[in-house]
Design brief:
Length: about 250
Amino acid sequence: MSTVQVEVQGLSKNFFDQSRGEVNAVQQVDFECRRGEILGLLGANGAGKTTTLRMISTVLQPTSGTARVLGHDVASEPVEVRRNLGFYSASTALYPRLTARETLTLFARVNKYPAERTKSRVEEMIERFGLGEYAGVRIEKLSSGMKQKVSIARTVVHDPPVLIFDEPTVGLDVLNALDLQKAIQELREDGKAILFSTHIMSEAERLCDRIAIIDKGRLRACADLEGLRAATSRHYLEDIFVHYVTSHETPDQD
Ligand code: ATP
């Protein structure tokens, strides 16, 4: 059985913007992500990371190209794709008046987790993410660290094989960011295929098995750190990133 869980081929997205005209947000991007792998999408603000991840998660329709999650096409099988995927971003809102337990139960149901197993799965998540004594408290009364744990538990409660973390550490303090990274590493150990976007070099370096460098909507490189070092003769990811971004500064791509 193939271990490739996410396959992206020639994926492109154009927007029309009143002031900027046609925006080529994502252009001909190809990559894949396997079981037990964290693939980092590394790019500056506006590089096209979120647009790419939104297409994979079926929130946006590609202009052209394909993305498949466990072989299911995002355009023709969006329900199957969503069932197999959990999406986390720093801006994902929780319902403030629900408790953590109610939140997890709701998201298990919405994502079609088997009804007869939902109760035990929710309790397992409460245990795993250390939500125990807070599980019956309304979200609005929780600290931001606790809300973050509920958000991760909410993302994985239906046990999807593919997880997307879109700039998840934005706005978190160092300790909460490290906690989140630890949780993501544990999910990799569970065999999840994980797409992780960031513009923070140290985070990509520490966490990702392979790194896809995205700039102005285009994939400039995709390899593990050793491969990127060998290809550029540079050691630090920051220098590698600058190499790929500046070597493509041509007027037609601005
Ligand atoms: P950030 O880290 O700032 O979120 P990003 O790498 O996630 O950046 P995207 O949000 O994917 O980048 O944006 C890629 C490009 O597409 C940017 O130029 C952005 O302004 C543009 N864009 C995104 N959404 C729209 C939209 N709905 N309409 C017009 N342009 C858009």
